[in-house]
Amino acid sequence: MSDPILQQILTALTGVQSDLSEMKADLAGAKLELGGLKSEMGDVRSEMSDVRSEMSDIRSEMSDIKSEMSDIRSEMSDIKSEIASIKEDTKLIPLIQQAVSEVNAEVIATRDTIERIEETLRGHDVTLDLLSRRSIDQEAALKRIK
Fold first, then answer.
1. What is the separation of C-alpha 28 from the centre of its chain, rounded to a whole number of angstroms?
2. How far apart are the C-alpha atoms of 57 and 64, rounded to whole Å?
3. Residue 92 DSSP class
4. Which residues of the chain are modeled with pLDDT < 70?
């Protein structure tokens, strides 16, 4: 074969070798990037696992919160019922106050009446005492006359 053809083949082979070296370098870079991607994927999987765990914790906390809210609603219902009962009971307060006021007025009137009766009885006691003495004096006078 001739030198120029060999030279062309040699040049072509050198170009192929150069291309092959570049491909190997690119492949090594790609392998390196792939290794980095695998590492990052492992990190992502780890983070996803952490996120799933946190989501599970959040769901559990939400369930607890819902349970507490249910308890609070129940307590609020009881409180509303008690408030309604208290309102119903307090409706009677004005009537009770009026009744107490009326009873107090009756007690005062009765006390005044009793005081007047006692005063009248004292007057009657004095009158009866005088009448008794007169009667005794008159009986004594009649005895003397007889």
1. 66
2. 11
3. T
4. 1
